[in-house]
Amino acid sequence: MLTTTIVVVASLGYLGLLFAIAYWADRRADQKRSVISNATIYALSLAVYCTAWTFYGSVGRAAATGIGFLPIYIGPTLIAALWGTLLLKIVRVSKSQRITSIADFIASRYGKSHLLGGLVTVIAVLGIVPYIALQLKAISRSFTILLTYPDVTMPNPADSLPLLQDTTLYVALLLAAFTILFGTRHLDASERHEGMVAAIAFESIVKLIAFLSVGIFVTYQLHDGFTDLFDKAETAGILNPLIIDGMNGYENWFALTLLSALAVMMLPRQFQVAVVENSSEQHLRRAVWLFPLYLFLINIFVIPIALAGQLTFTGQNVDADTFVLTLPMAHHQSALTLLVFLGGMSAATGMVIVETIALSTMVCNDLVMPVLLKRWKRIPPDADLSQLLLRIRRGAIILILLLGFLYFRLAGEAYALVSIGLISFSAVAQFAPALIIGLYWRGGTRSGALAGLLSGFVIWMYTLLLPSFAKSGWLPVGLLEHGPFAVELLKPQALFGLSGLNEITHCLFWSMTFNIGAYLLFSLWRTPRVDEATQASLFVDALKNQQFLGIGLWRGTAEVKELLHLAERFLGVERAKHLFQRFARRRKLHDINQLPADAETVHFAETLLAGAIGSASARVMVSSVTTEETLGMDEVLNILDEASQIRSYSKELEQKSHQLEAATRELKEANERLQELDRLKDDFMSSVTHELRTPLASIRAFSEILNDDPDLPLNERQRFLGIIVNETKRLSRLVNQVLDLAKIESGRADWNAEDVDLLEVVEEALAATEQLFADHGTRVDRELPERPCVVTGDRDRLMQVLLNLLSNANKYVPQNTGVVTVNLRSNHENYEVSVADNGPGIAAEELPNIFEKFRQAASTSNKPIGTGLGLPISKKILAHLGGEIWAESGEEKGAIFTFALPKKKESCMTSGGANVKDYSNRG
Amino acid sequence: MSKIILIVDDEPNIVLSVEYLMKREGYEVVTAGDGQEAMERISESPPDLLILDVMMPRKNGFEVCREIRADPALSTMPILILSAKGREAEIKKGISLGADGYITKPFSTHDLVDRVNQLLQPQE
After folding, report:
1. Among A224, A476, A599, A769, which residue's CB has the most CB atoms within a 10 Å radius?
2. Which of A177-191, A286-300, A760-774 has the lowest mean pLDDT?
3. If 0-12 CB within 10 Å is exposed, 13-18 middle and 19+ buried, where does residue A131 land?
4. Could you give the CA distance from residue A520 to residue A539 in angstroms, rounded to a whole number?
5. Cβ–Cβ below 8 Å for B87 and A686
6. pTM (2 d.p.)
């Protein structure tokens, strides 16, 4: 049997256990042995998302709309995939700015604005109150139902009871007391509530186990597994409507998915556990998969329980929202029933505790503090303010819970659990544009955020809150049916004629449209001010630079003593001294007195205060003891510029050093090349001098002989004089060729680019050397075509090449039996001219360097007089004209020198014949 | 019996002028166009003095010099290098390889004749 006493004792015992866990975790935290610094506990604490709504309401919704309950879990599952960047960014910003709540976050993003923080707080409180009412309703109803165990009877509507007999009131007060014990034992909200988180994680386990136990009991005890249950449901005709109804309205599915995806990040309690209570960024990685897994597990048995409830209570007046509890009751499972009751209480209390702590922080920091700050300007405050702050928070907790109770009394019975929750979801979703867009877009301004939030909130009140009051009978129903003043276009649930959507989708559509529209419009209205721009870059670039930009943007004078004094007032003397001491040590200083009153210290004091009273108020307080010089936009930009300049300088330096290395390498290579060239030049000079000395030696020797022997016979004289003349010619030829080569090599030679008929050049060269060949008794064979062979080149240079080849050939062929063959032919793209002789030929080992300077082919004896520069010059000439020259040994004996030049393109076309049109007129 | 001088040079005009000068002094002259040919002439009948060019095809003067000095039978044969290579290092190389004199082209006919006479004198 479950008596009232047992239920009450079990409930209080359970709350006592939670408190013990919290107390233990807080003690551990004080000893620096944190229990919650664990990724799994972090993920479990996120499951505070699953409230009484999930625990009782999902089954209710499943009974009504089948799988329509699912989007509320699909949304968070989908957005969890983005947590690796999105949530990480929020967490990182919040850590560096000591953000204490979502109101603080948004206010801080837009230049630490009191107005914005206050607005967010108001929206959050008004939006969350129905949600808290939902939890109170769940606890009190489940308690009331339990009292009649094992008979299943639905309790009377709450408003039929006198106020003081309503269990809900006592539940609310009990929870308020419990939350105060949990959350406001000491100040500095940014120093996390470790005990609370530990208790929440424990509650997440309890509610999961309780729900799974009911699921297993229903599916495997009452029925024979999923298949059996589904078969029975189908026979009873309740399965198909469930599945098919649930699939209706894709826009509603989409809207609910989106809504819950936003809510799981924007709900104050989710922000509290996911961001404020986060102890390590590493924990996010496990939460990304563990949290969706938790959602999956807690949803497995929703449909079976809904089906089983409908099968069990056919024809009875049993609310589907209570199936989780009433099913074990109806089957006299007292232990399971108690477990379910505790599970439901876990779900509800967890939500209420975290939510009210989060909201009370917001109310204190963003609503009450600004008012107090204004008053303190006239009347100086007491020395120790920390007690006052705690009192404000405690008062806020009681107030919020009583508001929840009030809403429950006024409107609670008109809606199912899930619908109440969705009203709250829609309210907090209004934070999403200002928060998420503000994280990625620098252009968002305070007025944009204000306008967006305000318009979204007004639409929410008009399309969701108003109808919820109207349905409860507090406002005329005609307002819903005909619109205010009978203007159909303004009907709250079909605004501007938009109908066919459910009320949540309808509200989400219009509120988001106005919210985002106003946000963008007002943000684009003007460029962000200095404080907005500073904060924007801190938020937008949070993942980029770890370094704290905010420090560089403060300039003014401050007294460390004053800052410490300020902190002491809000945090208490001991704590403030301790924290300042720690800060000093971190800066490698011995004690507080050595702290310089610089931007870093001021910033430290400000973030310290931000933890206690919110960033906007902290800014006001700190600036009251410091004389801050206002920075103009130009100056801020200068500071930012300097930072980026330093960055780019160091980047440039790095680049420069790379360039230097490369340059050094190039220089080294160039030096090696130069040395090589120098060596080549030396070799060349030594070769040239050698080649000059040799004819000079002959000339001097014969001159001296002629000079010494005047009686020399006439024929001898003539012979010697002939040698002198020839050697002189050789000498001047050599000088000319050296100069010519130098000119070509240095690129100073003048080149003509004209149409040259190779045939004509060959004929001319042969005519010029006719006498030479005749003197040597050499026969010249001509293998020449009849048509002109036109190339583009320098006529004189080509002549020089040909003359060189012909005279070379003549030198090497034997006297009187020499044969030189000149051949001109077309070969594909080229014309080729070759000069073959029947001389001694070229040794195979000589062939590769025959075109090098001063490399004359050896002959057995009687070496012909040459300069050794003819072939190198020819090679240079052909290279310049885009052709090439090569040598090969003849088939039997002798050498063949061939050069090739590309044909001139047009010549091939015009020489084609009469039927070829004249293209030259085409210009 | 007049002394025999072997003139080795690949420049016909040099050979011609030196041959004239030596004959005018009363020496007998044998010629060769490169180092290889010179070695053949020497092995046929060693001359009393060698006038040797350096830059020649097939076998250069330095190699000829080294081969001659490596042969004990020829170790005392005077060698006079007559080369267009006039750098200090090359002169040193020639002397260290065993040449008795080094004259650079273009040369003074008188100097050449004097050096030849000088080298052949003591043995008379």
Report:
1. A769
2. A177-191
3. buried
4. 18
5. yes
6. 0.57
Domains of chain B: 4-120 (3.40.50.2300)
What's the whole-number mean pLDDT along residues A492-498? 70
The answer to whether the beta carbons of residues A373 and A620 sit under 8 Å apart is yes
**Which residue bears the tokens 């020497």?**
B42
Of A691, A723, A858, the CB nearest to B57: A858
pLDDT at residue B113 in the model: 92
Distance from CA of A817 to the nearest CA of B (A): 22
Rounded distance between C-alpha atoms, residue A214 and residue B58, angstroms: 110
Report d(CA A82, CA A61) in Å as an integer. Answer: 28
CA distances from A361 to A421, A610, A613, A751 (A): 22, 12, 8, 90
pLDDT in tens, A873-919: 888 888 888 888 888 886 667 888 899 988 886 544 444 333 333 33
Sign of CA dihedral B27, B113, A862, B98: positive
ipTM score assigned to the predicted complex: 0.92
HSE (CB half, 13 Å, CA atoms) of A575? Answer: 18
Burial class (CB in 10 A: 0-12, 13-18, 19+), A347: buried
pLDDT tens across A327-363, in order?
888 888 888 888 888 888 888 888 888 888 888 888 8
Contacts from A529-535 at CB under 8 Å and sequence distance 24+?
A529/A111, A529/A445, A529/A446, A529/A633, A530/A631, A530/A632, A530/A633, A530/A636, A531/A111, A531/A112, A532/A110, A532/A111, A532/A445, A532/A446, A533/A442, A533/A633, A533/A636, A534/A111, A534/A636, A535/A108, A535/A109, A535/A110, A535/A111, A535/A112
Helix (H) or strand (E) holding A477: none
Strand order in the sheet with A884-889: A779-783, A819-827, A830-837, A895-902, A884-889
Nearest to B109 among A691, A696, A701 (CB): A701
* Shortest distance, CA B20 to any CA of chain A (angstroms): 9
Determine, for residues B17 and A861 on separate chains, whether the beta-carbon distance falls below 8 Å: no
Query: Would you call A705 and B21 a contact, using CB atoms and an 8 Å cutoff?
Result: yes
Q: Do A861 and B109 touch (CB under 8 A)?
A: no
pLDDT in the model for residue A918: 39
d(CA A758, CA B33) in angstroms, rounded, equals: 40
What digits encode the pLDDT tens for the residues A556-571?
A: 556 777 777 777 777 7
Structural domains in chain A plus CATH codes: 4-429 (1.20.1730.10), 430-542 (no CATH), 547-627 (no CATH), 635-743 (1.10.287.130), 750-910 (3.30.565.10)
pLDDT value of position A245: 56
Which of A704, A728, A845 to mutate to probe the B interface, most B CBs <10 Å? A704
CB spacing of B109 vs A705 below 8 angstroms? yes
Contact A694 B57 (CB under 8 A): no
Band of the pLDDT at A482, cuts 50, 70, 90?
low
B residues 7-66 closer than 8 Å to A (CB): 10-14, 16-18, 20-21, 24, 33, 37, 55, 57-58
Q: Which pLDDT does position A545 carry in this prediction?
A: 52
Whether the pLDDT of residue B29 is over 90: the answer is yes
Say yes or no to pLDDT of B110 above 80.
yes
> Which are the contacts of A318, defined by CB distance < 8 A and separation ≥ 6?
A152, A154, A309, A326
Place of tokens 């036109």: A790
pLDDT of residue A250: 74
Q: Any bridge partners for residue A627, and if so which?
A: A557
Confirm if A222 and A331 have CB atoms less than 8 A apart: yes
The more confident residue out of B59 and A497 is: B59
How far apart, in whole angstroms, are the C-alpha atoms of residue A756 and residue A242?
96
Residue of A457 and A615 predicted with greater confidence: A457
**Count of Cβ atoms closer than 10 Å to residue A764 Cβ:** 15
